[in-house]
Amino acid sequence: MESLHSEKNCVKKCSSSRRSAFCQSVRGNTSWTMMLLKNIGLSRGLSNRSRRVVTRFSKNDSPVVKLLSKQKEVEISPVRFSVRIPGLEEPACKRQLPLQLAWAI
After folding, report:
1. In which domain of life is the source organism classified (predicted)?
2. How far apart are CA 100 and CA 89, in angstroms?
3. Contacts of 3 (CB under 8 A, 6+ apart)
4. Which residue of 31, 49, 52, 64 is 20 to 30 Å from 104, comparing CA positions?
5. CB-based burial of residue 72 (10 Å sphere; 0-12 exposed, 13-18 middle, 19+ buried)?
6. pLDDT tens digits along 42-74
7. Long-range contacts of the stretch 15-20 (C-beta < 8 A, 24+)
8. Residue 87 contacts by C-beta under 8 Å, 6 or more apart in sequence?
9. Whole-model pTM?
10. What is the dihedral of CA 78, 58, 69, 31, to 10 degrees?
11. 86-96 residue pLDDT tens
């Protein structure tokens, strides 16, 4: 992670190339099971470690997922991850899709 000093810089510095690589690797395999890496909507069942299946991609290239046992689809957008590093005033941050392949979990 890079040390970034504002949310604006965080969004600007994190290129979409990693997200594109993710999308390209998953796009041809939309039935892959993914695991959420962060609580992003507990009332909607979008909790850390919950498993989802990628069903398609939205117009802005974000994955659309559904719970394994339900039909409702939800678009997953990039979220901010941050960590405090000793010696730095501001936390280091990055924006990424909160998804990970769940095939080995």
Report:
1. Eukaryota
2. 30
3. 85, 88, 90, 92
4. 64
5. exposed
6. 888 888 888 888 888 888 888 888 887 777 888
7. 18/96, 19/61, 19/78, 19/96, 19/97, 20/61
8. none
9. 0.64
10. -100
11. 998 888 888 88
Locus of tokens 């117009």: 59
Determine the residue type at 85. Answer: I
| Residue labelled with tokens 């939205």 | 58
**Taking the CB of residue 83, how many other CB atoms lie within 10 A of it?**
10
Q: How far is CA 57 from CA 54, 72, 95, in A?
A: 8, 15, 18
Give which of 69, 84, 79 is closest to 99, Cα–Cα: 79
Tell me how far apart the alpha carbons of residues 41 and 16 are, in angstroms, rounded to a whole number. 23
